[in-house]
Design a protein that fits this description.
Elements lengths: L14 H4 L10 H5 L11 H4 L3 H16 L9
């Protein structure tokens, strides 16, 4: 049996809630890149720490930025 580890993982805090940002702008590509993997996939809320409300807004903004050709659909 493996010994139990009593250390609990730290809970990540939503970037937008902590900085008091109410909207997610699709034109702000530097902020949006922080929620993408190196292969240009959208990261889930477990990896980024965003709350469900802002995760939906981030996803919508990333898709909008891709459609407007501000961000790539895939990275090579």
């Amino acid at each position: 049996m493996r010994p139990s580890n009593n250390t609990q993982p730290t809970k990540k805090v939503c970037y937008f809630c902590s900085n008091k940002l109410s909207t997610v702008d699709y034109k702000d590509t530097q902020t949006l890149r922080r929620f993408m993997s190196p292969h240009s996939k959208i990261l889930n809320h477990n990896r980024t720490g965003t709350c469900p409300k802002h995760q939906r807004l981030v996803t919508k903004a990333l898709k909008r930025a891709r459609h407007m050709a501000l961000l790539p659909f895939v990275a090579s």
